[in-house]
């Protein structure tokens, strides 16, 4: 059996084989978790929602006092993505991860606040967003709580809480753990935002509860309103989940994933199906508008 071809990545504008990429001992992402990342999907060779991800990224860089540069922009990253798709022989959808971190240096107080970046593009099965065939099993994670502050809505490289909640899920035979904030409310899962459905009403944790300001969260809220649902952003309690008809999770790579079990409660996925259909329609419309002039 042939060995899979080596994959390329981009580090500060340079294309490197992943096996040749080396993290130096003064890399601040490695030493201190000093940076942010964004993950999103490529659909039909188009970087889905990249503008929205860049808006969140630049907001986060400002909060972390990491200085931006004129060469670091959407157009340049799209060029990198296109090149990596070609170099890595990707013919279907792909998952993009863009990590941005402060330039190298030792000590908590940096001497250089300029940015470095690392971009990977990896093949992912399927085309477009699809609902998971079997629902997810979830339960709450209690060892550590998520603090509510100005950084709560960002995707920080320092992701220890999510790592530990993922380990907890695996040890308990779950697909995802649900993370609690300092008030004891459910704010998100290990890798996603969370929604519940009761009749014609959809609930999701408010941003001031400490959840990540998810890009897919925003799309689902808007799609639900367009479909005639009432949407409330609020504190999400254990009782809300126990009384819900549906629970589903959302993120920028997988789209919408339905939950079939939380503790003793079982759920359906009718509304998740409707929202996913609306989401994929939006994707198709956006991709049609972004086609190259030669393709029109």
UniProtKB/TrEMBL annotation:
Its EC number is 2.6.1.42. It holds the Pfam family Aminotran_4. The keyword Lyase applies. GO terms for biological process: carboxylic acid biosynthetic process. It catalyses: L-valine + 2-oxoglutarate = 3-methyl-2-oxobutanoate + L-glutamate; L-leucine + 2-oxoglutarate = 4-methyl-2-oxopentanoate + L-glutamate; L-isoleucine + 2-oxoglutarate = (S)-3-methyl-2-oxopentanoate + L-glutamate. One of its GO terms (molecular function) is lyase activity. Keywords: Lyase. Pathway: Amino-acid biosynthesis; L-valine biosynthesis; L-valine from pyruvate: step 4/4; Amino-acid biosynthesis; L-isoleucine biosynthesis; L-isoleucine from 2-oxobutanoate: step 4/4; Amino-acid biosynthesis; L-leucine biosynthesis; L-leucine from 3-methyl-2-oxobutanoate: step 4/4. The keyword Lyase applies. It comes from the Bacteria. InterPro entries: Aminotrans_IV, Aminotransferase-like, BCAT-like_C, BCAT-like_N, Class-IV_PLP-Dep_Aminotrnsfr. Belongs to the class-IV pyridoxal-phosphate-dependent aminotransferase family. PANTHER family: AMINO-ACID AMINOTRANSFERASE (PTHR42743), AMINODEOXYCHORISMATE LYASE (PTHR42743:SF11). This is branched-chain-amino-acid transaminase.
């Amino acid at each position: 059996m042939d060995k899979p071809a080596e994959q390329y990545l981009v580090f500060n504008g340079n294309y490197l084989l992943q096996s040749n990429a080396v993290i130096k001992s003064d890399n601040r992402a490695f030493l201190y978790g000093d940076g942010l990342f964004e993950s999103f999907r490529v659909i039909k060779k188009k970087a889905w929602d990249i503008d929205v991800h860049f808006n969140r990224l630049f907001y986060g860089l400002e909060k972390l006092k990491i200085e931006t540069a004129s060469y670091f922009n959407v157009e340049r990253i799209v060029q990198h993505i296109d090149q990596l798709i070609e170099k890595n022989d990707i013919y279907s959808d792909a998952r993009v991860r863009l990590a941005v971190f402060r330039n190298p240096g030792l000590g908590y107080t940096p001497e250089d606040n300029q940015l470095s970046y690392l971009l990977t593009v990896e093949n992912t099965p399927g085309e477009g967003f699809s609902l998971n065939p079997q629902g997810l099993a979830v339960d709450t994670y209690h060892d550590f709580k998520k603090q509510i502050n100005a950084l709560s809505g960002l995707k920080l490289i320092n992701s220890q809480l999510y790592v530990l909640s993922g380990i907890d899920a695996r040890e308990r035979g779950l697909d995802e753990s649900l993370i609690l904030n300092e008030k004891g409310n459910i704010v998100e899962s290990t890798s996603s935002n969370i929604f519940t459905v009761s009749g014609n009403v959809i609930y999701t944790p408010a941003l001031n509860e400490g959840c990540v300001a998810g890009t897919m969260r925003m799309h689902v809220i808007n799609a639900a309103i367009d479909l005639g649902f009432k949407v409330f952003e609020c504190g999400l309690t254990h009782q809300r989940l126990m009384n819900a008809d549906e629970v589903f999770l959302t993120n920028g790579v997988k789209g919408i994933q339905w939950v079939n079990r939380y503790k003793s409660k079982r759920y359906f996925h009718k509304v998740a199906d409707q929202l996913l259909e609306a989401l994929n329609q939006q994707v198709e419309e956006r991709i049609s508008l972004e086609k190259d002039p030669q393709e029109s």
